[in-house]
Amino acid sequence: MATSSVNSRAEGSPKRGYVSIADVGIGSADWLLELSQKVSPNVQLHGFGISNELFPAKKYLPSNMKLEILDAFQTLPEHLKGKFDVVHIRAFTIVVKGGHPGVLLDNLIAMLKPGGYLQWDEMDSAPFSAHSPNEGTPKVNMELVIDKFQDMCKKIDLDFEWISDLAEICNQQGLKVVDSFRLPCNDILRQMTTDNYLMGLEDLGYVVSERALGERTAYRQAFNKAVLEMRKGVSISMDMIVVVCQLEKK
Questions:
Q1: Of 125-134, 211-220, 237-246, where does the model show the most confidence?
Q2: 94, 207 in Cβ contact below 8 A?
Q3: Mind telling me which SUPFAM superfamilies this protein's record contains (predicted)?
Q4: H helices within the chain, ranges in order?
């Protein structure tokens, strides 16, 4: 869904010169590599991450792809301003503090050429919830782990309400909202996404302070029981919010 949307924007961009697409927060560049298989080799692909530790080796990158280190919350380098026809960002839920994307969104807008598009795909952590396949399957420990996660987020200034308001926030920042929709959890992907969420929740038991998380041993015990519930069909789900905006030409 996300790559096809960006692909359509790239195809609809002006034919003069090269089309430039930026992906911010690339991780291991999976999204950008998938996109590279769907667009013309003339499309310039730029990936940005806070660290290069997960970047693929240059040897395995397409010739039209370049990866760079960028802290998207700091002052945007001059050479990145007004450079891109499309800017894509995803999965910044856990790093946007204070309930507003603020400087991050300002930087994304600054990266756009006039007439360029911003696409933001974000997991809506506010309604993060556990689901049982039937009434007879308990989910109490999965719910306990999620409750501890939500409590921890509040203690470290993570407020997820901005995600459902993202389209309006973009509009307030002067962008024209072209499309905005919510994607519920697909049952086909439910097991895979639950595995991914549990890996992240497991890490909390090791890296987050007890002041934020609560007693560490109790958390790990609840987590281990939640894994057993998952093996009986209990799942975790979040919706994805997708917002596509345009920086109109003045």
A1: 237-246
A2: no
A3: S-adenosyl-L-methionine-dependent methyltransferases
A4: 2-11, 30-36, 102-111, 140-155, 161-164, 166-172, 190-207, 210-213, 216-230
Determine the distance from the C-alpha atom of residue 152 to the mean position of all C-alpha atoms in its chain, rounded to a whole number. 20
What radius of gyration do the chain's Cα atoms show? Answer: 20
Report the alpha-carbon distance of residue 186 to residue 163 in Å, rounded.
Answer: 19
pLDDT digits (tens, 9 = 90+) for 72-123: 999 999 999 999 999 999 999 989 999 999 999 999 999 999 999 999 999 9
Summarised one tens digit per residue, pLDDT across range 143-153 is 999 999 999 99
Alpha-carbon distance 224 to 5, whole Å?
Answer: 39
Q: Which residues of 110-149 are buried (b: 16+ CB within 10 A; e: fewer)?
A: ebbbeebbbbbbbbbbbebebbbeeeeeebebbbbbbebb
pTM of the full structure: 0.88
Res. 15: pLDDT tops 80? no
**Which residue bears the tokens 């034919």?**
15
Q: Count of H helices and E strands in the chain?
A: 9, 7
Domain ranges of the chain: 2-246
SS3 118: strand
Architecture, CATH, for domain 2-246? 3-Layer(aba) Sandwich (3.40)
> Which residues lie below 8 Å from residue 185, measured CB to CB, with a gap of 6+?
193, 235, 237, 238, 239
